[in-house]
Each structure stands twice: as structure tokens, then as C-alpha cells.
TrEMBL record:
Function: A flexible structure which links the flagellar filament to the drive apparatus in the basal body.
Signal peptide: none
Taxonomic classification: Bacteria, Pseudomonadati, Pseudomonadota, Betaproteobacteria, Burkholderiales
Keyword set includes RNA-binding: no
Protein family: Belongs to the flagella basal body rod proteins family.
Compartments in which it is found: Bacterial flagellum basal body
PANTHER family in the record: FLAGELLAR HOOK PROTEIN FLGE, FLAGELLAR PROTEIN
Alphabetized Gene3D superfamilies for the sequence: Flagellar hook protein FlgE
Originating species: Hydrogenophaga palleronii
Protein name: Flagellar hook protein FlgE
Amino acid sequence: MAFQQGLSGLNSASRNLDVIGHNIANANTVGMKTSRAEFAELYASSINSSGGINAGIGVSVATVSQMFTQGNISVTGNELDLAINGAGFFELGQRDGSMAYSRAGMFKLDADGNIINNEGANLMGYPTDVDGNRTAFESQPLRLPTGGPIPARQTTAITAEFNLDARAGIAAAQVPPTPLATYATSIVAFDQQGLEIPVTLAFEKIGNNQWNVYAAANGDDPAAAVPFQINFLPDGSYDPANVVPPLQLASPNDPAQVFNVDLNFEDVTQFGTAFAVADIDQDGYRPGEFTGLNIDEQGIVTARYSNGETHAAGQVAMVNFRNVQGLSPTGGGNWVRTAASGEPVRGAPGEGNFGVLKSGALEDSNVDLTAELVNMMTAQRAYQANAQTIKTQDQVLNTLLSMR
């Protein structure tokens, strides 16, 4: 029996050394989770031994489990590096169509704009609109529009926020008359091809709390335009009863292509302070080439373009499992689900119990190298002790065989 005990101890110690060696070898592997060998004693079942003393027949490795504790997060500066701070896994669509799950966030763009890992598996995510609002909960490969420029957008509205000086005199009563350019501002609008259309807005006081608005485009003199009137309430706020007609603009390449642009003056005021434009904006833009991306803590992937626009291109999907110990490692930092792990629970970064993402960073291996070196020495001693058990039993048998 001692031979059996010693042999089982050697096998178990050897397997423990294999596990420790694997941990040490992957001390610098991104997203790696340390493993440990868990042992169980062996007993020979027997009716005669019931209720008595059974010395046992050795030891076995019951399982090799992984420790899914959080690894340190190291900043890399690469915008496609992602670290999960908290629970959850990246979902990866592999080339064979199956799904894998990983904590290794070293991603790249392929020639088609797909976000992939080093094995060519697609990072999965949820579709969103351009503002980052999720439009579906079925994951799909995340893809950025890198193949060509985004099309231009025609301006549909101009929004202005400024103050007209309540101290200004009525224009008809001024000698000499106040130049129309005294209270004026400008902005560039765009037609459907992204061609620029300069727009000038000028304001002239015509009465108490009453102003004329002159709008001109393409360098035309505002004074030649037909004005419309806006009024203010006694407290200087904008009168919501104002009716502001749309501004008609024409494409520079084809003057017959006329389109309307709404003017929003709801944040305009008339206070006793100097004329000042706080903000003026429009919703059109010229075509733009892809220049880069950003991924926030909630996993929203935002593409940047050369025209200054930013459009959301999806949201990184995350999954978790009721029993992460049931996941089966397949190499390359990946796991696959099994019957023991259960079905994946879907979510997004920062939702519920899911962790948040850190862009430009990676999660280090959670291997404690010092602890593993100590474990290795302990396993080595265990191996030597079991070998000594076999050697001692062999000496005992030799003694018995030598008796005469």
C-alpha cells in the first residue's frame, strides 16, 4: 500500500508543479487568471473498515480551478486596449462561428474596420445610433466605417444664444444712423454636398423690446434682405409668441437648389449689457475621413472624423456566468462556456454587476509571482517526501527478503 500512496503522491505533486509552472510562465500574460491544483485524499472502501481506522491509499488531484480575481490595470495609451475593472468578460466571435469569452483586451482594427484580437476573433457589441443610444440587444461584430468618408449633412437648423443691448437706441431716431453691422454675427452652413454657405445675421432695434432681424448668405448685404421682427418681454427674455420664418439658402453650385433652415432664437435675451454672442451652432457638416476612436467607461465606441464630427459606432458587449469556474479555458486568453458554467448573462459595461471599461489600459495577470515561487518550493518538498516514502518501503521489503 505504501507504494500506492507514494506513487499517487508523486503524480499529484508532479501535476501541482505543472500548474505552478504554468502560472509562472504566464505571469506577464494579459488577462490571465492564476490556477491552483486542489487535492483529495483516497480511501479504499471496505465493509470491514467501516467504523474503524482506514489508513487510506493516497491522494489525487480533484480539480484544477482558476482564480477569477481582479488583476492590476496598467495604462498603455493605445486607444484600442481595453481593461475590465470589475466583473464580466468580452464576447468574441471566432472564425468558426462559435463564441469565446476573454479578459484580454488587446484589440486592433483590420482592413475592413472590424475590431479584432490577435487571433482574428471579432469583438462583439450592440448597435447604437450616432448619439450612442443602444438600438438592439443582440450582439454583433463591432465595425468602424473606415473604408471611406462619411457623407455631408445639409444644415437644417441654426441655434443662437446671444444678448442684444437693451440700452441701444431706436435705429430710426439715431443721427447718424447706427451701422447695421453693430449688432451682427455670422456662421457657416452646409448644403447636401457639404459646400459652405456663409450666413450673416444682423439686428436693428426698431422699438421698445422690438428688433428687426436681417439674414443674408454668400456674402450678400444683410441690409438688402427682407427683415422679420422678434420681440422681448419686459424682463428682457425672449417672447415665445415670436414667429420666426425659416431662412432660405441656395447651394453655391446650383442656385436652383434651395432649402429651408430653421432659426432658433429661444435663448436670445435683451439685457442692459453689451451685445455678446454666447453660442451659435448649426447641425450640418462637410464630408469627413475617419481619424480615430474613443471608447468610454460604458463601452460606447465613438469614431472621430476630420470634419470635427464624432459618431457612436456601437457599444462593447459584456457577458458573465453564474459559475465562472465552470468555464473551460481554450488558450489564447479565451474561455468557452460549458454545461457547468451555464448560459451567458448579457449586459453592458457599468450596468448592474458588470464592471466598467478602461480604454488605453490592459488588465495584468493576477499571478502572484512571489507566492508561486513559494508554492513551487513546497511542491518540490512534497515530491521529495513522497519519493522518500517509496524508497523507505523498498528498503523494508529488501530487509524482509533478506531474512533467513
